[in-house]
Amino acid sequence: MKQQVSSQMLKGILQGMMLIILEKQPDYGYGISKQINKYGLAEIPNGTIYPLLTTMEKRGLVVGKMRASADGPDRKYYYVTSVGVEAKQEFILSWETLSGAVNSLINEGE
User: Fold this and answer.
1) pLDDT tens, residue by residue, 43-59
2) CA 20 to 30 Å from 97, out of 10, 22, 87, 105?
C-alpha cells in the first residue's frame, strides 16, 4: 500500500530535493521528476515540478538555459545559482533538525 504524502508537507521538501539534485547535475523538468521518483516519491505529477521550477527561477535559486536535445526539441535545463546553494544548505540543516526531532518523538518509549 503506497503512503500518500501531504501536499503541504511536500511543497517545501520538493524544493530542497530539487536543489540537491540540480547541484549534482543540471537537468530538465522531466529528468528531475524521474530522479525524484527514484528516491521513492513516484506519485509527484509533472504539474507540480514545473510550477516549482518557475518559482525557484523567479527567486534566483536556479537559472534555466535552453539546450539542444538529441531526442527531440530543445529542453530547458536548470542550474543552481549561488543563492540556490545557500538555500540548499539551509534546507539540509532544517531537515536534519526537523527529522531528528520527529524521529525522537516517534521512537520515544519504544
Assistant:
1) 787 788 999 999 999 99
2) 22
